[in-house]
Design a protein that fits this description.
- The chain is of the alpha/beta class.
- It has one domain (6-173): Phosphoglycerate mutase-like (Rossmann fold).
- It contains 6 helices and 7 strands; from the N terminus they run E-H-E-H-E-H-H-E-H-E-H-E-E.
- It has a 7-stranded mixed sheet with strand order 3-2-4-1-6-7-5.
- Helix 1 (33-48) packs across helix 2 (62-71) and helix 4 (92-100) crosses helix 5.
């Protein structure tokens, strides 16, 4: 008997970062006040929509880690988190390779990272789904944007157009 496994991928772009200190490296930039407000809304959204990844993969950039910390209350307690330096500079192809390396026991994963890589990855993977969400992702993937994609199959064989874009949430539309 063939068993088809459904996987869910959440692509969360870090929230708005601060440019107040020109001496900071790009990797060291923290969230701006607007970004901190956005992660509070995103955390509520995660809780309300029962987003429950088995694993969170997060870029080591300060703004990405602060985004994760800000939404953490909206995630299930004890969710596994891996902060990875390679995610900071990974292009969309490298992100896809990272996803392909996941153990099949991981049913759902949240990737907290950067643009344009997340936008490119979402566009490459989404072969169908909500037409409005697909148009919005293609038009702009703003800071704090969260794409929810699902596919049937294995992580190892995940490829272009294999996923369905189920939803796309952005902070400015939450809490209304």
């Amino acid at each position: 008997m063939l068993v088809v496994v459904r996987h869910t991928l959440y692509l969360l772009r870090h929230a708005k970062s601060s440019w107040d200190d020109p001496e900071l490296s790009d990797r060291a930039r923290p969230l701006a006040k607007r970004g901190r407000r956005a992660v509070a809304l995103l955390g509520e959204h995660l809780r309300e929509t029962a987003v429950a990844p088995d694993l969170v993969l997060c870029s080591s950039a300060v703004r990405a880690v602060e985004t994760l910390e800000g939404v953490r209350d909206g995630l299930p307690p004890g969710v596994a988190v891996e902060i990875e330096d390679d995610l900071y500079s990974a292009d969309a192809a490298a992100l896809l390779e990272r996803l392909r390396a996941l153990r099949e026991a991981v049913g759902s994963v949240m990737l907290v990272g950067h643009n344009p890589e997340l936008e490119e990855l979402a566009g490459e993977l989404a072969g169908g789904g909500d037409p409005d969400a697909r148009a919005r992702v293609a038009a702009k993937y703003p800071t704090g944007g969260l794409a929810t994609l699902a596919f049937e199959g294995t992580w190892r064989r995940l490829d272009r157009h294999d996923a369905t874009l189920e939803a796309f949430a952005v902070p400015r539309e939450l809490g209304r």
